[in-house]
């Protein structure tokens, strides 16, 4: 029933997505965000220190960014014909995936970074079959640069851009250089600000020794159950993706390859940022929402997908109620 409702591409579906986000996160409105300030860039750190003192504002901004990401991700799926039918299901799946971890109920630097990376992903995929992509790769570089201001490891997403250029286009060294200039243009202004305010030493210290944004909270059995379901969904979604590879065009398969690289690149970051796994998780959720939507739309026994969605919803609501009562 739920998948059937959200599988349409009608715009009113996003109103339902907003409703889902508001309901699943309702207990978090008046709670203090269980997070601290991020220390990658001092000015941005001060912004989030302020937001953390206003849980309602942090809560609403978080919902806004997730809904915006859902609109973009659904658009990517529709524009590139990634599903058997046009569908806004990725927006619902993304909202559900974000709600699986209670600490993601508020805005965070990695959520802002993820939003810029979703826009970068849209630019990356749009370069297919274009004669000149100088503007697209420059804008992608700017977006990755902006993302890295909020969460520095985002800079590694250049891997996705370079991979996409290698499979969609013949080699043109100028396109790679232009994308790097896009990032450099962001850091030119950043470094200029810190030089003018004589804060370079502070900047270097915070970059080399960043604080953790998410405070560690020992998962309870509900959270472990949600993590387990997430891992199982990854396995089954990729199983369906591989099983239907012969039914898709080369271009669509290449887009799924880009999404997979977009998914696995942040996962590799986890090797170097083991203590910041929730920020890594935020980066991988948008591309994963498309892949899991493909699973839900292609699975022959639709009741299985519906059952999994209901179990996730029940566990999320149960967790929020328990946390509200504690």
Write the layout of secondary structure elements.
Elements: H1 2-6, H2 13-24, H3 42-52, H4 55-79, H5 89-98, H6 109-125, H7 134-150, H8 158-168, H9 173-196, H10 200-208, H11 221-243, H12 250-269, H13 277-298, H14 302-325
Gyration radius from CA atoms, angstroms: 20 Å
Tell me the helix content: over 70%
Strand portion: under 5%
Domain module tally: 1
Low-confidence stretches: none
Order of helices and strands: HHHHHHHHHHHHHH
* Shape annotation: globular
Distance between the termini: 33 Å
Which structural class do the helices and strands define?
A: mainly alpha
**Most strands sheet:** none
Number of helices: 14
> What's the mean pLDDT score?
80
Structure summary, number of beta strands:
0
Give a verbal description of the structure.
The chain has 326 residues and is mainly α. It has one domain (2-325). Helices cover 71% and strands 0% of the residues. The protein has 14 helices and no strands. Helix 11 (221-243) packs antiparallel against helix 14. The chain is globular, with a radius of gyration of 20 Å. The two termini are 33 Å apart. The mean pLDDT is 80.
List keywords for this structure.
326 residues, mainly alpha, 14 helices, globular
Task: Give a short overview.
This protein is an all-alpha fold and 326 residues long. The protein contains 14 helices and no strands.
């Amino acid at each position: 029933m739920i998948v059937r409702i959200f599988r349409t591409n009608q715009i009113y579906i996003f109103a339902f997505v907003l409703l889902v986000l508001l309901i699943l996160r309702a207990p978090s409105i008046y709670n203090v965000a269980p997070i601290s300030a991020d220390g990658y860039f001092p000015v941005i750190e001060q912004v989030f220190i302020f937001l953390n003192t206003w849980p309602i504002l942090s809560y609403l901004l978080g919902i806004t960014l997730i809904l915006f990401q859902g609109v973009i991700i659904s658009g990517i799926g529709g524009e590139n014909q990634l599903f058997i039918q046009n569908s806004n299901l990725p927006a619902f799946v993304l909202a559900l995936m974000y709600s699986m971890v209670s600490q993601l109920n508020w805005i965070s630097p990695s959520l802002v970074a993820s939003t810029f990376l979703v826009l970068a992903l849209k630019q990356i995929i749009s370069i297919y079959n274009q004669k000149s992509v100088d503007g697209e790769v420059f804008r992608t570089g700017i977006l990755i640069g902006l993302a890295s201001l909020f969460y520095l490891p985002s800079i590694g997403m250049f891997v996705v851009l370079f991979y996409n250029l290698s499979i969609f286009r013949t080699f043109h060294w100028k396109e790679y250089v232009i994308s790097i200039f896009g990032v450099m243009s962001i850091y030119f202004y950043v470094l200029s600000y810190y030089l003018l305010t004589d804060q370079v030493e502070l900047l270097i210290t915070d970059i080399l020794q960043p604080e953790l944004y998410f405070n560690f909270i020992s998962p309870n059995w509900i959270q472990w159950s949600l993590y387990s379901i997430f891992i199982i969904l990854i396995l089954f979604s990729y199983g369906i993706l591989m099983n239907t590879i012969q039914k898709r065009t080369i271009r669509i398969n290449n887009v799924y390859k880009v999404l997979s690289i977009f998914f696995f690149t942040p996962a590799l970051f986890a090797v170097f940022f083991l203590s910041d796994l929730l920020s890594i998780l935020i980066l991988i959720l948008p591309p994963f929402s498309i892949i899991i939507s493909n699973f839900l739309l292609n699975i022959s026994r639709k009741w299985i997908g519906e059952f999994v969605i209901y179990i996730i919803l029940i566990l999320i609501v149960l967790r929020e109620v328990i946390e509200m009562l504690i």
